[in-house]
Amino acid sequence: MFVINVEGAIYKDGKWLIIERNSKEEHAGGLLSLVGGTVENEGFSKNLLERTLKRELFEEVGITIKDEVTYIRNSSFVLPDGREVLDLVFYCEIETGEPFAKSPDEVTAVYWMAAEEIFAHPNAPVWLKESIEEVEKISSKIQLI
Q1: C-alpha–C-alpha distance, residues 79 and 124, integer Å
Q2: Which residues of 34-55 are buried (b: 16+ CB within 10 A; e: fewer)?
Q3: By residue range, what is the domain housing residue 98?
Q4: What was the pLDDT predicted at 144?
Q5: Burial bucket for residue 120 (CB in 10 Å: 0-12, 13-18, 19+)
Q6: Residue 137, helix vs strand vs coil
Q7: Using alpha carbons only, what angle is made at residue 52 by residues 48 and 54, rounded to the nearest 5 degrees?
Q8: Which of 74, 60, 64 is nearest to 19 (CA)?
Q9: How many angstroms separate the CA atoms of 3 and 5, rounded?
């Protein structure tokens, strides 16, 4: 059984919303990341992924996003404790708020970074770079740029 994680790719003025994860985080502590988190079991439910994405973006960086999100990619990985994670990335747009490190236990810093800055950053893991590459590939379909 997979743990399901969702992440939001948010683009504004030529830059991506990126967080630095708290170094105490179990997975990828101290690394750069998109904002996101784990889907909680709700039994029978609708729009669970989208609601989780909205909740996580508000809890971690204090923003609300528009209802419409666009699926970008999925990947899987294994946590240090052996649990397998299915990670889903969505493109989304800010509706209200200016991002800040609202949850210091999870987020050390918030950045707006161009793709080139992300690709060159020593704390940018390969999965973040791959997510940014994927969303930029389909940018004309989602009118990103």
Answers
A1: 18
A2: bbbbebeeeeeeeeeebebbbe
A3: 3-137
A4: 59
A5: exposed
A6: helix
A7: 120
A8: 60
A9: 7
Q: Is residue 31 part of a domain?
A: yes
Task: Return the number of other C-beta atoms located less than 10 Å from residue 106's C-beta.
Answer: 20
In a domain, 84, yes or no: yes
Model pLDDT for residues 82-134, shown as the tens digit of each residue: 999 999 999 999 999 999 999 888 899 999 999 999 999 999 999 999 999 99
Residue 26, in any domain of the structure: yes
CATH code at 23?
A: 3.90.79.10
For residue 114, being part of any structural domain is answered with yes
Under 8 Å between Cβ of 15 and 121:
no
Count of domains for the chain: 1
Pair 75, 130: CB distance under 8 Å: yes
What's the CA gap between 14 and 115, in Å, rounded? 8
* Pair of tokens at residue 125: 């893991």
pLDDT of residue 86: 96
pLDDT digits (tens, 9 = 90+) for 40-71: 887 788 889 999 999 999 999 999 999 999 99
